[in-house]
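Exercise: predict the fold of this chain.
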Amino acid sequence: MKNTPFTEKHIALGAKMAEFAGYNMPISYSGINDEHAAVRKNAGIFDVSHMGEFIVKGEQALDLIQRTTSNDASKLKAGQAQYSCLPNENGGIVDDLLVYCVEENKVYMLVVNASNIEKDWNWISKHNTNKAEMHNISEKTCLLAIQGPNATKILQPLTEMDILNLKYYTFTKGKFAGVENVLISATGYTGAGGVEIYFEDKDDAADKIWNAIFEVGGPQGLKPVGLGARDTLRLEMGFCLYGNDIDDTTSPIEAGLGWITKFTKDFTSKEIFAKQKAEGVQKKLVGFEMIDKGIPRHGYEIKDFSGTTIGHVTSGTQAPSLGKAIGMGYVTPAFAAIDSAIYIKVRDKLLQAKVAKIPFA
């Protein structure tokens, strides 16, 4: 198991640790509900240094990104980021990712899921026929997400960069907590506002930044948050988790990600997605809330009133902010409309649920 530069800090804080994507990661500290509430109401800090980062640069950088991703990266100006995905050749998804434009048409950073670093690197490299310059900087890059309505207010004293007014999906680079060349972006996986901080793991930068954040944030109620609450927070927002809600067998059109699928350029599986958009799909990702008491879990069958299987649950939890059980899953289009009655098979019982609007929160 790999460690992040913050592993010892998590253990010292009493975190419950577990393996995730090959890393020893904190699952919870004070409890999922408590950490979830801290992010929704104030601020929490996540160590997400296990995520992958690739630099793509040179005259061919944009061309490579355009051919391998579904969104239109040519629209990005320096300092802007976008959510996208890497389609495979069969209309599925290799991974979802963030594309950061560091220098227009020249330098980009791709942020990918921890479990897919090698897979994504190999996929993009395979398509790098025009020889854009590529660097895998995952091992030496630290990533902290400070999320919540008070996150930027807490962090602002640590930098001269204006992070209070950073617009959603934009970023800035500069000095933070005495560390040079820190990238701060108004992105995250919680829907609660806040920033993500990228920096190189050298010269005690990890210690300096972590300690500085807690020095200013601790007295203001900033809490360390584990992957457990990260999951409940993202699910309340209806954000997809790779390996659960999207994978190599699901298309962005089926997953409700048509908004990141731009047909103004050529890219892998474009024809398949265009056909799905024109003719419709066989399954759709929906959000649902439980009416009967019970927690939906990944892999549970979704049925209609007569007990016929119409799909399966991809994610589910008891939502801390909502006080009810929610989930996401694929169903046949006939059952995808809001308020459609569906049934989740929990052990041998069919529990009633209804299709709900996303985000839930």
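Check your answer against the key: The chain has a mean pLDDT of 98.
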